[in-house]
Prior knowledge:
Strand content of chain A: 25-35%
CATH architecture of the largest domain in chain A: Alpha-Beta Barrel
Number of strands of chain A: 30
Structural class of chain A: alpha/beta
Number of helices of chain A: 9
Largest interface: A-B, 35 and 36 residues
CATH class of the largest domain in chain A: Alpha Beta
Largest sheet of chain A: 7 strands, mixed
Distance between the termini of chain A: 54 Å
Helix content of chain A: 10-25%
Strand order of the largest sheet of chain A: 1-7-6-3-4-5-2
Radius of gyration of chain A: 24 Å
Oligomer: homodimer
Amino acid sequence: MQIRKWDMAQLSFEGTQAGNPFVDVTVDALARCGGRTVEVPGFYDGNGVYRVRILPDFCGRWQVTLKSNDPLLDGQTAEFDCIAAADGVHGPVQVADEYHFAYADGTPYYECGTTCYVWNHQEPALREKTLATLKDAPFNKMRMCVFPKHYRYNANEPAFFPFEGNLKDGFDFTRFNPACWAQLDRCVTQLMDLGIEADIILFHPYDRWGFAHMDRETEDLYLRYCVARLSGYRNVWWSFANEFDFMRDKNMTDWDHYGPYVQRLDPVGHLRGIHNGRIYYDHTKPWVTHCSIQSHDFLQIPVWHERYHKPICIDECCYEGNIPNTWGNITAREMVHRFWESLAYGAYCGHGETYLNDRDELWWSKGGELVGQSPERLKFFLKIFSEMPGDYVPLRPGVVRPCIGSPSRQYLYYAGPSQSVGAEFSLPEQEQYQADIIDTWEMTVTPVPGVFSGNFLVPMPQKPYLAVRLRRVEA
Amino acid sequence: MQIRKWDMAQLSFEGTQAGNPFVDVTVDALARCGGRTVEVPGFYDGNGVYRVRILPDFCGRWQVTLKSNDPLLDGQTAEFDCIAAADGVHGPVQVADEYHFAYADGTPYYECGTTCYVWNHQEPALREKTLATLKDAPFNKMRMCVFPKHYRYNANEPAFFPFEGNLKDGFDFTRFNPACWAQLDRCVTQLMDLGIEADIILFHPYDRWGFAHMDRETEDLYLRYCVARLSGYRNVWWSFANEFDFMRDKNMTDWDHYGPYVQRLDPVGHLRGIHNGRIYYDHTKPWVTHCSIQSHDFLQIPVWHERYHKPICIDECCYEGNIPNTWGNITAREMVHRFWESLAYGAYCGHGETYLNDRDELWWSKGGELVGQSPERLKFFLKIFSEMPGDYVPLRPGVVRPCIGSPSRQYLYYAGPSQSVGAEFSLPEQEQYQADIIDTWEMTVTPVPGVFSGNFLVPMPQKPYLAVRLRRVEA
């Protein structure tokens, strides 16, 4: 068997169906390649089938041996050859440094995320519509939940649940429902095929089924199942909660347990974050790879950088829309502004859309169609963003407006609500720069005639929501 | 002599002209009324004239006795009768509680300030223009400096200096220049007559004359002179610095000295604040009466309230204008937005204007004319603000948008960049409210038909920069 690097190698084995294999049978694989051994958790997928999902990160022969308390499984072996990655496949996203993400092969990852919390729990036609929308959208990260959602505009009962059972008769938390997980597999794969990272939300409080109120043992079983099923996808991130502090049954000791628990189990080391409601999580904790923040206080980004020294994803800064909920009704202009503002401070902003419609199909939760005016402009945003060298850093000269720059190469200054006659810069006399005026709303890039060096002023039209880009030119 | 309460009683005495009376002669008054004695510093005003300025706060006979090392002055007495305050005179502004200011007679003071740093140092014609502009403007506080200003757009040499001397020949820091101080007196009086508080900035770093680099002894002499001359005006506030942390010659020990020093000298107890550049002052210090803050991070207002428990004046949040300096080029729309945002968080915002013109007469520094679009809208803002009961408090229900309210009477919710179909409220079932939609830019108040109670939604047009006001009606 040949597997391309960073594609999933799924190995399947026959085992017992007796009792409750989800809890009775332990199965782990030792995967060896080039003198390195990785322990990979396996899982039961129903019908006597056990699987191990490996994300090979190294070319060569991989040899796999099972460890199990089921004699049918224990000692079973398999092998495959990992060959070069397919074109355009760069591996899982990792933290590159305190400001940046990069794919495993070093390619910079310019995050531009959106949120459709439970698109994966909707009917097939709506899921297809979501995928069609994403195909044409700028987003390369999707925040989504394992569990279904109970909330305003989310009254529909999902077709499948992660556990056996239903709302009326209750759930058996010791038996997973493979059909539901297969649907999640499919959704994660579909995102992967679109180049979109799946930020998998493991817990959330918006629940009528009891999934927000399980006990520690059940939750450990559930998390292990998540890791075993999903860590073989290169585009998975772990988001431990949406609004962790709104989950009243859980306390800090719980989160301090779940984070390191998943960290130990996950053979790939996927990104791990936790999203806040009102109270910020202590993102200095070692298990947290990056800051997942709900806030629209962008001026605090330098404070968070100073405190956490980790990349900052402002996953929720309010959504474009018109619902009464105060977190879901900013204008497209404000949404676009927040992406640029965030970038210019060296952080990543997140999109969502909450326009009312008769079908109660709001993008932020169910996916479907985007009707707002921001996505088109975020496509333009991402294009400009992706043209920044991957080593840019936030510059903090103490001025009021933010700027990022790859020193001596390229700078991006965002003027936001300013309407200045020009932007002032102070750069070395021996370096020459070409300047562009970027209209973030009109989506235009207008080169300014001439070259600039030393202390200079780039003239600007007197209107808000402009950025200035400086690119070094040869003298 | 009869003096109305909270008008200045100026008592003048003949004394020596020998030597340097500014430093050689000490003069203080003991002012007694109704069994209370207040010590009031006097000052030398040139030509052998010494003055004591008293701001009587109590009706009755005031008896004044001088203490001096000059035998001509020592033991001299004077008296006057303090009668009821003139109509519309409410006394000096004081801190009412952790959110509010009030005049001494308890009348709420709804702060709406502006900044013309050195309007008092400009030619008479320009000063007259400033006053004419203020007469028609909403502002009831003016930030202004004792010292002239050296900065971009501020190249002109003032007619007078607080000390004897000039730039070419240097200054004698032991001799004040009465002509300059008389001009300052006039300016403070003119503001008082317009109902405007004078937030007197005692030190600032923008200097070419040496006033930012005096020694401790000189500064003590200067501060005492400021207090002696100005504390008799009811509309004076002390602002210890503009951007204290940009004054490189001074350290925290200096500020820790000046604040309490003025506090001890000032018989009236005028408000005392200190304005920051990049580093926030520790406004918990007892001598600080209110927080004077430079920032546009309005989401931090609840944090500051929590930390300082003092009224918060965001005296500088960027100015409406078009200059390249990043603090001086926000749009009128943004300026107006910041006033409403600030209010809805329970703080006070400050105005300034920095539009370029051929005369280098930018309002923020020299005064003159206002050409921006925000003042008209701030007049509307102040009207709505002044209609709030004086006991409103910031409400922090954890929602994204801010709201103030006088519980069970009146609420003001500011939607800012939201474009919602409506705003949701949850109020007691037995209370009925009338709702107004306030368009902060168009300056309209549109009553919503019907009355509201319990949990309700006030329908709103889907556009940004609206506020919703709820006023209780009789059932």
